[in-house]
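FAQ: What does a ligand-bound record look like?

Like this one, built around 5,6-dihydroxy-NADP:
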Amino acid sequence: MAENFTFYAPTKVVFGRDTEQQCGALVSECGGTRVLLHYGGQSAVRSGLTARVRKSLEDAGLFCAELGGVVPNPHLSKIREGIALGKKEGIDFILAVGGGSVIDSAKAIAYGLAEEGDVWDLYSKKRKAKACLPVGVVLTIAASGSEMSNSSVVTKEDEDLKRGYNDDLCRPRFAVMNPALTQTLPDWQTEAGCTDILMHTLERYFPAGPHMELTDTIAEGLLRTVIRNAEILHTEPDNYDARAEVMWAGSLSHNDLTGCGQLTRGDFVCHGLEHELSGFYDVTHGAGLAAVWGSWARYVYRDALDRFVRFAEKVFDIGVQPADLEGPALQEAREKAALAGIEALENVFRRIGMPTSLTELGLQVSEEDCRRLAASAAAACGGSKGAARLLYEEDMFNIYMAAR
Ligand code: NZQ
Ligand code: ZN
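The answer part, i.e. the structure of the complex:
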């Protein structure tokens, strides 16, 4: 059943080898003249990427200021530094060279430069943005989908608060995606990225209730493709074609394509639970998602049983056996298939080196810690969240406890 929807994906995608050489032309096309080149800790400088991008900008006659040093789970203090630098230099375009952390930092700087007021007010939901400077992206890790998404997630590091703000204003004008740029990633980051990509589609896949057949089929194809290529990359990190599959999947997984026509905008409880983990403990986002997903799924699967049964069948070829059951026996067999599907995905996580518990993630979390995490997660979403099943603070606490 098709619900009404708006699909808005204004980002121009320029995909393939050497595409970063087009940055100057792409920024000019968008009307940018004074560019802030924004990047992370080391990787993009070390590989020579920032120098190549800078050359492309300068060859196009553009002014270029630089601000590096964005850390994973990007800090508000760096964003404030970027806003101050942007004002001083009269910046009119932000070019992010990096992954989700750099892109989200760039989006926050772009909000901060477009209008007066404290940019954290957006993330603490005190106000909505009215404007945002244009942002472009050179993607170096397939993961967050921020290169096409309307979202940015920022950490206020002095309060351990990680909060997101969603607004179409920040959707990047262009995204340069050269899969070869991701070949320098450590395996852990590659696989955490693949997990995040899977999760962006899974969050949209499990809401109970009607879904569109086409959307489901695209989602299942994406999940199968990412699982297959994540396993390839675990042993063949230089496989360009596998990198390309995963990179394109990362964008499609979070540009809303795999949520079109659904009754709700998705579940996103696992993301809510994970953002608390990365806010408090600074863990890698994708790994944090892998650590809580199984516990969440076992907590809610009976409430969205049709979806979990379909997931097992379409993604892992696990059918309800035998096919001719009825009544309680059928119900039992369906639950068994759903649980087998959950376990199959956890086994994928294990094969690609991702954690399936908080302990495996490296965290020793006490009952009291779980209370604190659940209270913060519930506060961040206004008390309740979830579309597979609506969950409250006590449910979130139970899931953290089960995930230990
Ligand atoms: O800082 P450098 O030295 O570049 O190292 C980075 C970083 O340590 C490294 N890296 C990136 N590209 C590389 C590379 N290392 C070698 N070669 C390369 N080509 O990878 C590490 C992780 O980078 P990061 O940008 O943090 O990764 P990711 O893209 O997974 O982004 C994670 C952030 O995005 C947010 C997450 O919460 C997290 O803060 N998310 C943003 C979303 C959005 N805006 O739509 C949605 C997501 O659900 C997510 O919440
Ligand atoms: Zn994510």
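Follow-up question: can I read anything off the structure? Yes, for example: The chain has a mean pLDDT of 97.
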